[in-house]
Amino acid sequence: MKFQSNEILNGKYSARNTTKSAFLIPFTLLLIMFPIILMRNTEESSPSSSLSPSSPNMSSVRNMNNRTETKGCDIFSGNWIPYSEEPYYNNVTCKWMIDEQNCMKFGRPDEEYLHWRWKPDECELPLFNATQFLELVSGKKMVFVGDSVGRNQLQSLLCLLSQVSEPEDVSHKYTSDVIYFRRYFFPDYNFTLGNLWSPYFVRSSDADKKGHSYNNIMKLYVDEVDEAWSSQVENFDIVIISAGHWFFRPLMYYEKGQLVGCNKCGIENVTDLAHYYGYKMAFRTAFRTLTSLENFKGVTYFRTFSPSHFENGDWNKGGNCVRTKPFSKEEMKLNGYFLETYMTQVNEFKVAQEVASKKGLKFLMLNTTEIMLLRPDGHPNDYGHSKNTNVTYYNDCVHWCLPGPVDTWNEFLLYMLNIESNSSYDSKLESVVL
C-alpha cells in the first residue's frame, strides 16, 4: 500500500542544509499537513503552567500599539457570527488553491463552515476588497516567510485577488527551486507576491546520518538565520512572517555551534528544554535579522501561530476534526499550553517591535491565535484528497480549507494596510504643512 506522507516526514526538505538549494519534491507532499502533530502529545504531557509574572498577558497584548485600532476598536477582539452570503471565491473561480485545501472539490458535505464571519466587538471589519488591496500594494513586493500555514494564507490571497486581476506565476525567473520559493506577478498593478519557505527561520539539518524517518531528530542552530530567506527578504516591501508546528517535532538545539539542549530527543545527559526554547530563539533570531539587515526598509507583519484541532486520537492514530461549527468563547479558552506557546512568540515580538521602532522600522501583529482556536470546523480533515483506496492519508487538522476562515487573515491584513496607508499620508501631509 502506498502512503501519502506529510511534509515533515518526507525527509527531503529536512535533509538539506537550509542555506542551500532544496531538493525538489512533489508539491502535493508539501502541504498535506503538518509536521506537528506531535503538538497534541506535547499538550497532553506539558503542564498547564501559568506564565511568569513578568510575561505579558492577553490583556497587555491587546493593548500593544500595533496600529490595528481606530477610534478605540481592536479588530482582534470579537466573535464569529453567522453570515449568509457566499464566500469570495470557490474551487471553480480560483485556480490557485491546491488540492490539499480544496475541500469543495473533494466533496465536503457540510457548508456551514463557509458561513461565519469575524465580528469585532466595537466596530465592523470591512469585507475584503481586492481592488483596494491591489491599489494599496501597487508597485510593491510582498512576501510570506515561514511554513505551509503561511503559504495557506498566501494561496487564500491569490484566490481573493485573482477575482479582480489574474496573476502570473513567475517563480522560474527567480529560482530553480519552485517548490519552496515562489513568486506571482500582477502586471495590472506591478505587484509581486512571494513565498520564502523556511519553517524554522534558522539553519537546520538532519541529525541522523542514516536518513530520515517519522520521528528522527533535527538539528536546529537557533542563533544562525536560514539564509534561504534572509538573503532574499531585503527585496520586499512587506513581509508577513509566521511559524509554529514544525517546532513540536524532536529537535536538538545548538548555539554557537554547541549543543545546549533539545525537545523530545530522549538522549541521556541532554537537557529537554521543550519546544518553547527553540520557538523563542528562532523568533529572536528572525526578528533580529529583520531589524539588522542594512537594506531592509519594509514593514513586517507577524502573524501569531494557528492552533490545530485534532480530536479522538493523535494525527497518525485516527485523530480528526469533524466539527461543523465554531466553538464559543465559553467552550474554548486560550490558556495553558496554547497560551504559553502563543506568549513565547509574542514576548519576542514585543522586544523586536521596540528595537524596530528606534530604527524607523514598522513591526505589526496579526493577532489570530485566539480567533482561530475557535474554528475547529475550518480544516480539511479528510477532504483534501480523492478517496483513493490505494493511498493512506492522514487527516489534516492543521491547514485550512479554501475558501474558509483563513480568508479572514487577509481581511485583517487589508484593514491594517489601509490604516498604514492613511497614517503615511497623514505624516506626509503634516510635513508639507509644517
From TrEMBL:
<feature type="domain" description="Trichome birefringence-like N-terminal">
    <location>
        <begin position="72"/>
        <end position="124"/>
    </location>
</feature>
<dbReference type="InterPro" id="IPR029962">
    <property type="entry name" value="TBL"/>
</dbReference>
<dbReference type="Pfam" id="PF13839">
    <property type="entry name" value="PC-Esterase"/>
</dbReference>
<keyword id="KW-0472">Membrane</keyword>
<feature type="transmembrane region" description="Helical">
    <location>
        <begin position="21"/>
        <end position="39"/>
    </location>
</feature>
<feature type="region of interest" description="Disordered">
    <location>
        <begin position="45"/>
        <end position="64"/>
    </location>
</feature>
<feature type="domain" description="Trichome birefringence-like C-terminal">
    <location>
        <begin position="125"/>
        <end position="415"/>
    </location>
</feature>
<keyword id="KW-0812">Transmembrane</keyword>
<feature type="compositionally biased region" description="Low complexity">
    <location>
        <begin position="45"/>
        <end position="60"/>
    </location>
</feature>
<dbReference type="InterPro" id="IPR026057">
    <property type="entry name" value="TBL_C"/>
</dbReference>
<dbReference type="InterPro" id="IPR025846">
    <property type="entry name" value="TBL_N"/>
</dbReference>
<dbReference type="Pfam" id="PF14416">
    <property type="entry name" value="PMR5N"/>
</dbReference>
<keyword id="KW-0735">Signal-anchor</keyword>
<keyword id="KW-1133">Transmembrane helix</keyword>
<dbReference type="GO" id="GO:0005794">
    <property type="term" value="C:Golgi apparatus"/>
</dbReference>
<dbReference type="GO" id="GO:0016413">
    <property type="term" value="F:O-acetyltransferase activity"/>
</dbReference>
<dbReference type="GO" id="GO:0016020">
    <property type="term" value="C:membrane"/>
</dbReference>
<protein>
    <recommendedName>
        <fullName>Trichome birefringence-like N-terminal domain-containing protein</fullName>
    </recommendedName>
</protein>
<comment type="similarity">
    <text>Belongs to the PC-esterase family. TBL subfamily.</text>
</comment>
